Amino acid sequence: MKIRYVILLSFLLCGSLFADFPFKKKPQEFTTRKPNEVAETLRNGTPVQRNDLALELGMFAPNPSGTGTKSNSPCVNFRHVEERPVTLRTGAENVLLLAESSECDALYLAVFDKAPKSEWRHVQTVRLPSRTQRSEISFAELIQPGVSEILVHHETTLDSGAASQQDFVVLKMLRDRIEVVFDTTERSQITLANRTPDDTDNLQQTQTSTFSLLRGPANSAAVYRILEKEVITDYKTSITRSRVWTWDPELERFRPAPFDSGDARPAPPPAKKPATPTTTKPSPK
Question: Are residues 122 and 211 in the same domain?
Answer without folding.
Answer: no
